Amino acid sequence: MTSDHQYVSRKHEEDKVIVFEKGDLVFVFNFHWSSSYFDYRVGCLKPGKYKVVLDSDAGLFGGFGRIHHTAEHFTSDCQHDNRPHSFSVYTPSRTCVVYAPMN
């Protein structure tokens, strides 16, 4: 995590969601107390395929295990939040999920 690349692409007050990039990683925080979001669009810098590398909802952390770690998230060239590419995720309430590109 020594990369100089840092970018906050989304701070959505109503959804209570923050999305930011640190290096190649994309962090998605959902602070909403009750709302989970399906097909939530997340902007990113790099195109390709992303996978979950950290999930605060995992049983290991006392969570409910609502995130599928084997899922692959493919980017599209659809710009979103001033980022050149984007992909869709499921973001359960009160979670943080970190995505990394699969190279």
UniProtKB/TrEMBL annotation:
Q: Matching Pfam families, A to Z?
A: Alpha-amylase_C
Residue stretches making up the Alpha-amylase/branching enzyme C-terminal all beta domain: 7-100
Single GO biological process annotation from the record = polysaccharide catabolic process
GO molecular function terms attached to this record? 1,4-alpha-glucan branching enzyme activity; cation binding
Q: Which GO terms describe its cellular component?
A: cytoplasm
SUPFAM superfamilies per record: Glycosyl hydrolase domain
Q: What is this protein called?
A: Alpha-amylase/branching enzyme C-terminal all beta domain-containing protein
